[in-house]
Specification:
This protein has 168 residues and is mostly beta strands. 2% of the residues lie in helices and 33% in strands. 19% of the residues are buried.
Length: 168
């Protein structure tokens, strides 16, 4: 299979190997320009270019309005377990936020699928840098993935908006 190998060492010395299955193309060339979440830029268009070896895995994907995209934060910066997030002035634990600099730099975004052409998925609502390595694509299934009445911790009282000035 083609694709770049991503090696991550676990805290217990275990090695976990992920293989990039494609590349994500977006208009965002600088970290500073990337929206906080894809929902903050629902019209931002991008492409998910899946490696040819995985084309069979895209069978029937066109029937889904939304996709869950998992990717490697390959430019995420220094890992800090506590930091001030993009939308709040109070420090929070990295596992209580979606900051890209994490012990395992795995990102998740729900995008809208507009159409497919061979191994390319055309999507909207992208919030990743251009050239981000793709780890996986999963269908978004509202009856399984939507919990609109769930508490969102500190984000329930934090206003939405652009990244705060001076945040990584």
């Amino acid at each position: 299979m083609s694709g770049d190998r991503l090696m991550l060492d676990g805290a217990a010395g275990d090695t976990i190997v992920y293989r990039a299955i494609g590349l994500i193309r977006t208009p965002w060339l600088r970290v500073e320009d990337v929206p906080v979440q894809g929902a903050a830029a629902p019209d931002a268009e991008g492409r998910i270019e899946v490696h040819q070896d995985y084309i069979e895995g895209l069978l029937h994907i066109e029937g889904f309005d939304r996709l869950i995209v998992l990717y490697h934060f390959d430019q995420s910066g220094e890992v800090k377990l506590v930091r001030r997030p993009f939308l709040d002035d109070e420090p929070h634990g990295v596992f209580a936020m979606r900051h890209p600099a994490r012990p395992n730099p795995i990102g998740l975004t729900v995008v809208s699928l507009t159409h497919r052409a061979e191994t390319t998925l055309f999507v909207r609502g992208v919030d990743m840098l251009d050239g981000t390595p793709l780890l996986d694509v999963k269908p978004y299934v509202p009856r399984w993935d939507a919990f609109p009445d769930s508490a969102a911790g500190w984000l329930d009282v934090s206003p939405d908006g652009p990244k705060r000035e001076g945040r990584e």
